[in-house]
């Protein structure tokens, strides 16, 4: 008896998805990956180009992510030194006079942008239809380096994307004083653009501001907060297999000339605290969960019966438009 799929919609959407940060892969390095239920290998050439291929050598099935080495513009298999370029084509067999014509490996389109390594997935094998835009905060001295958070979550990209248009959760999860009413909501495949006013309670009283969200497919979104301190959160959600997603949040804060930047925001380790200090700070990883962490936890804890993501707070018709316009048409 076959197992009933947990999600009633295609598991792997079409779009760009993060598989690593740029600084996690140095020139000449090789890394194994697993996303979309597929074993993959990622490598960066000495010239800095990143390639992602299916992991197994067509010769005898060796996993190129374990023992494979970068040589020039390609990767060399650890079994018999067959070499494949970034397009998956076999370019060298050191002991053979002729190259096997069918010895090719499936390649994945790669786009390195905003400090992220993204790959394109399409259930029908089509080429990329759009690109992830470069954001002005990236590599900008006026903004802090990314503060990175990461979770492995039992969820679907659909659930995470619908979170954007779930108005009520902004009050009860993120602590707004109001249930925001977006004054801008544009849905044009593959882009969602939403802007809403915000109101947050602080020790110095209520502070009003604005939240602007841009979603590009089911794998990448930007949330820009204005009012207290300008903050941008770059979120990526990449399917690992039929059950789990790899979720990364990358926060950056606009620097203030009169205020020091905390070690967490700057990416630097915390300095040692004096024993005389009366305030104790929990070690990293044991701090009080942020509202973003709580939001992720709530999404992954949802009942399997609600996996389709239907939400009473979602604007009428939005869920169906998201599914029909942004998901692949076949399972």
Key traits:
18 strands, seven-stranded antiparallel β-sheet, 5 helices, Rieske Iron-sulfur Protein, 331 residues, four-stranded antiparallel β-sheet, elongated, Naphthalene 1,2-dioxygenase Alpha Subunit, Chain A, domain 1, mainly beta
Describe the structure concisely.
The chain has 331 residues and is mainly beta. 10% of the residues lie in helices and 33% in strands. It starts with 14 loop residues before the first strand and ends in a 5-residue tail after the last helix.
Structure, described:
The chain has 331 residues and is mainly beta. 10% of the residues lie in helices and 33% in strands. It folds into 2 domains: 15-121, Rieske [2Fe-2S] iron-sulphur domain (Rieske Iron-sulfur Protein), CATH 2.102.10.10; 147-268 and 287-326, Naphthalene 1,2-dioxygenase Alpha Subunit, Chain A, domain 1, CATH 3.90.380. The strands form 4 sheets. It has a 7-stranded antiparallel β-sheet. A 4-stranded antiparallel β-sheet has the order 2-3-4-9, with no helix packed on it. It starts with 14 loop residues before the first strand and ends in a 5-residue tail after the last helix. Mean pLDDT is 82; it is low at 269-289 and 297-331.
């Amino acid at each position: 008896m076959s197992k009933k799929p947990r999600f009633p919609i295609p598991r792997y959407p079409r779009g760009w998805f993060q598989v690593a940060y740029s600084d996690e892969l140095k020139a000449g390095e090789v890394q194994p990956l697993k996303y979309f239920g597929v074993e993959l290998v990622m490598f960066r050439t000495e010239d800095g180009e990143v390639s992602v291929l299916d992991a197994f050598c067509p010769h005898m099935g060796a996993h190129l992510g374990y023992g494979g080495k970068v040589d020039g513009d390609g990767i060399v298999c650890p079994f018999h030194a067959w070499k494949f370029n970034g397009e998956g084509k076999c370019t060298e067999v050191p002991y053979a006079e002729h190259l096997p014509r069918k010895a090719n490996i499936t390649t994945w389109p790669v786009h390195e942008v905003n400090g992220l390594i993204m790959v394109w997935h399409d259930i029908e094998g089509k080429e990329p239809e759009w690109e992830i835009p470069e954001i002005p905060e990236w590599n900008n001295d006026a903004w802090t380096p990314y503060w990175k958070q990461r979770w492995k979550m039992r969820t679907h990209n659909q659930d995470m994307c619908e979170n954007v248009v779930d108005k009520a959760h902004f009050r009860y999860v993120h602590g707004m004083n109001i249930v925001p009413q977006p004054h801008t909501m544009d849905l044009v495949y593959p882009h969602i653009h939403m802007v809403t006013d915000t109101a947050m309670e602080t020790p110095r009283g209520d502070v009003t501001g604005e939240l602007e969200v841009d979603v590009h497919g089911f794998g990448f979104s930007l949330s820009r907060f204005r009012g207290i301190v300008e903050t941008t959160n770059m979120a990526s959600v990449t399917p690992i297999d039929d059950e789990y997603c790899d979720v990364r949040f990358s926060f950056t804060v606009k620097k203030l000339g009169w205020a020091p930047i905390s070690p967490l925001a700057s990416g630097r380790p915390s300095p040692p605290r004096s024993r005389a200090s009366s305030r104790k700070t929990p070690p990293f990883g044991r701090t009080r969960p942020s509202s973003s962490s709580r939001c992720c936890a709530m999404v992954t804890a949802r009942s399997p019966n609600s996996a389709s993501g239907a939400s009473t707070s979602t604007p009428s018709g939005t869920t169906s438009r998201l599914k029909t316009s942004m998901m692949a048409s076949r399972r």
